[in-house]
Design brief:
With 359 residues, the chain is α+β, with helices and mostly antiparallel strands. The protein contains eleven helices and 14 strands. It folds into two domains: 2-174, no CATH class; 190-358, no CATH class. The strands form two sheets. Strands 1-2-3-4-7-6-5 form a seven-stranded antiparallel beta sheet. Strands 8-9-10-11-14-13-12 form a seven-stranded antiparallel beta sheet.
């Protein structure tokens, strides 16, 4: 009891907060020493007045003022979502470069460097960029600093803004555990959507090939084909990976096929592709279904998008990696990153074909 009373007089440290995410349940109010009377709930009309929040399923907003967090942040906004997601948004205007840099170092010590969306944002690794914003100087929107970290079901964002100038945002997102839909997928396969037959395509001359070298030897070879019309109205490049240097599909135990594009594409075609995959396979490995507005924004900006993924077992259901009796039949992954753009990959394409033939 004395320890509890003593701790109430001490502000919660970042390390204590970071360690608390391992607790079940996650009692963030107690960890942050927030009392019920300090929570000011937004009205329903105030929530409706923010269409961005409504679009992503925010159903409750609470604000905490007059409470200092981590010896830095003077306000906290808590957003609850329809799907159980919880987001804590700590805010403070700061022109103290050393203070901002110290916060980043604590995050880096605990979670690593994280990722930043270059060239859209600058990095906290560049101390001069931090100092420039602290001195109210910047050249353009790309000088805003943004990093992201992921730890299990938690995501962390640190953002030093130029609009409003000097606002430091630290957001923590707690995503609910997704319950995978394990029923058998009995509506066919991705093959039903594809126009170009892989075996026939491989029988033509490739545009070029890329050797994948490991330990001084060619372990795989990617054969690259340009296709017209684009597959799924998006992908004009197909990469077929085979073992070694022999140009043959017969020695491949689990064929990897990647669909990529260097053409312009329409966001509606990406939305239609996700919808078509959902009709065949249902919710993905993490339980996600239709694209959310923020995902569409990321795709349109050609930024990072974790996408959708289905690991299919021998019974043509989602594989439970904790069940050793299950075996992988094939794996579909649709994602995006700034370097490679949109990418649809199928590992075990040959197994998917075999299943489709008996379906």
């Amino acid at each position: 009891m004395f320890e509890r009373l003593f701790n109430q007089n001490r502000p919660t440290t970042l390390v204590t907060f970071f360690n608390s995410i391992n607790n079940e349940p996650w009692d963030y109010l107690s960890v942050l020493q927030i009392k019920a009377h300090q929570l000011h709930r937004a009205t329903q009309q105030q929530i409706l007045d923010n269409p961005g929040d409504v679009a992503i399923g925010v159903n409750q907003v609470e604000v905490v003022l007059g409470h200092t967090f981590f010896n830095l942040f003077g306000s906290l906004v808590i957003k609850h979502h329809d799907d159980g997601e919880l987001r804590l948004m700590f805010n403070q205007t700061s022109f103290d470069a050393d203070q901002v840099a110290a916060l980043y170092r604590e995050l880096k010590t605990h979670f690593g460097q994280g990722i930043h969306h270059q060239p859209n944002f600058s990095s906290f690794e560049d101390l001069q960029k931090i100092r420039s914003i602290a001195q109210k100087k910047y050249d353009g929107p790309n000088d805003e600093i943004w990093h992201y970290w992921s730890a299990g079901r938690f995501g962390f964002v640190l953002n030093y803004k130029i609009e409003p100038l000097g606002q430091l945002l630290f957001s923590v997102t707690n995503r609910p555990e997704k319950v995978a839909d394990v029923k058998i997928r009995d509506k066919g396969t991705l093959l039903q959507l594809l126009q170009h037959n892989i075996t026939e395509l491989f029988g033509t001359e490739e545009n070029f090939s890329i050797p994948i070298i490991e330990n001084g030897e060619v372990k795989f070879t990617d054969y690259v084909f340009h296709v017209d019309p684009p597959e799924l109205r998006i992908f004009n490049t197909v990469k077929i990976r085979v073992l070694g240097t022999e140009r043959s599909l017969t020695n491949v135990k689990s064929l990897l096929v990647n669909y990529q594009t260097d053409n312009t594409w329409e966001i509606r075609d990406v939305i239609l592709l996700v919808d078509a995959l959902l009709k065949i396979y249902g919710p993905d490995d993490t339980g996600y279904e239709e694209l959310q507005p923020h995902e569409i924004d990321n795709i349109e900006q050609e930024s990072y998008w974790t996408g959708r993924s289905w690991l299919i077992n021998q019974d043509h259901g989602l594989q439970d990696l904790g069940d050793t009796s299950q075996q992988t039949l094939y794996w579909i992954n649709l994602n995006m990153n700034p370097e490679d753009g949109l990418n649809l990959s199928i590992l075990g394409f040959d197994h998917m074909e075999a299943y489709q033939n008996i379906y």
